[in-house]
Amino acid sequence: MGKKRKHSETDAATNVKKEDGAVERPKRTLLGWKDEVEEKPETDSVGFRNKEKVLVTCSRRISFRYRHLMLNVVSLLPHCKKDNKVESKSSRGATLNELVELKGCHLCRKGKDLYLWMAKSPNGPSLKFLVNAVHTMEELKLTGNHLKGSRPILTFSTNFDTEPHWKLLKEMIVQIFGTPKEHRKSKPYHDHVFVFSILDDHVWFRNYQISCPHTADTQKIDRNDLEKMTLVEVGPRFCLNPIKIFGGSFGGPTLYENPFYISPNQIRSLEKRQKAGKYAKKVKAKTRRKMHEMANPLEVDELAHMWDE
């Protein structure tokens, strides 16, 4: 067995080899061999990189349609992160504030209703919506298809610049649905559009693929045919009914409250009252019929007992 060399002996051996005139081996990197001349100086300034992420989670006992909608939203946001479901309703805001260090998007459910939270953690603000007209990608079966992870183009209707609460909502949507530049999971392409429009004080969401005509020989786009671009819907579809805007994260002072919002529990209770009114009318009609029969008895028929013998 040979003895191991000491570090001083190895250093001396390497110095002797360098003095003999041997060419020094270039440094090895992940991209290949790198010469010292091509190295960039360390004084170069690094550009700004947006490292914010969106947290997507939901509450327990969510229905299959709302769960599929949440998975569709996750597939559209390459910069998002999923987390476990939130169990407690009373301490939901405190729990989410602990989970989220940056802005988050929270999907929750109450009974048959779907509520959407958009919050900037930890200082706020936060917005609460009631989600209506939910249609998932699997349900619609549309012909549109775009590259997964590509950066979307966000378009808004002109109504977003009319009121302060719509301007705040627009900024929240830009921060949540806008993919950060040079994100590691995003693609440097723009092949689909997120459309947000306001109609009847509701925010309607649509996702369209940008279909471009290509030449027969190459896959490049002819500049003369740019006006022939079409939009093909991909999905999903949903409608957001704003309820309240809070100053903090998942709580705090109320900055805005929708005066036209009616809780779905109230709508269901009114429907039950209408059905109960129909039943009460039937009962009253039966009692009136009985009272009428008692007040106007029929005369005894003389031939009624003719065939009894």
From TrEMBL:
It comes from the Eukaryota. This is Uncharacterized protein.
